[in-house]
Prior knowledge:
Blueprint: H1 16-38, E1 44-48, H2 55-66, E2 73-77, H3 82-91, E3 98-102, H4 111-120, E4 128-130, E5 148-150, E6 154-159, H5 163-169, H6 174-183, E7 185-188, H7 194-206, H8 217-229, H9 239-251, H10 256-264
Parallel strand pairs: 1-6, 1-7, 2-3, 3-6
Antiparallel strand pairs: 4-5
Helix pairs in contact: 1-2, 1-7, 3-4, 5-6, 7-8, 8-9, 9-10
Amino acid sequence: YIMRKVVIPARSNETDRQIDKKLKDRFSILKIMTKAAINGDVKSLIISGPAGLGKSFTVEDALEEWDPSEDNYTVVKGYVKATGLYKTLWENRKAGNIVVFDDSDSIFHDDTTLAMLKAVTDSTEKRKVSYLSEFNMVDEDANVIPRTFQFDGTIIFITNLDFDAIIDKGTKLAPHLEAMVSRSHYIDLAMKTRRDYFIRIKQVVKQGLLKRKGLTNREENKILRFIEQKEDNLREMSLRVALKLSDIIKKHPRQFEKIATVTVTKGL
Length: 268
C-alpha cells in the first residue's frame, strides 16, 4: 500500500484545559479497557492514536504488571505476513492468552489477513479461523498446525491508523475496517492536532518522564518551553523528542537551544 504524508493541523477550537481533560479521560479509559482485556471481559480491542505519545507504553505496562514472566501474552511489532499471523493466532489461541499487534498496520491492508482478523474478532461464542494453504505449517514444537481451529484468546491492536477517518472517506479499505470496529471495542485517543500532541507530552513529562532521567524542574520546564515554541517546526511531536532534548540539556546545558534547534527542528 502507499504511505501518504499526513498533514497535522496546528490547533482546534479547544482550550488547553479542555484538551488536557480530554486526553486524561481517554488514557484513563485506555487503562480500564486494557484491564478488561486482561480479565477476558473484552476479546478484541483497537487503540488508535499517533506514534510516540504513550499508547503502547500504557498497554505494555499493564500487561507486564499482570504477567511479569510474559507467559500469557505476546507483543508483535512490525510487518506481519498471513502465514505469520495464522501461526501467531494458533500459538495464542487459548482463553487467557493475549496477543498484541503493535504498529503492525500491514495486517489491515491484506485481504487474507483481514479475513482472519474478522474471524477471530467475531462476536460469536465460537470464533473459528481457517487458512487453507498448499503446505503444512508447524508450531514451535514442530507439530502441524490445523488448517482450521477455534480461537479463544484476546487480541489488542495498537495502530496509528485513524479508522473513523478512513471509514468516513469510504476508501477501498473502509468496509474492512468498519467490520473490525463492529467486532471490537475501539478507542480513539483523540490526538488530532499539534497542540493535542504538545499537551500530551506535557502530561507525561509532569508524570515524571524526565525526572527519571535526572532532570531538575528548571530543566524540565526549559524543554517544555522549547517544544511549545518550536512545535510548528519540530520534525516530530512525540515523547521521543522530549527524551532527545533531555540528553542534550544534561550534556550541553549552555548550548542547549542552539544544539536542539539544529538536531530536532527543520526550516530554522
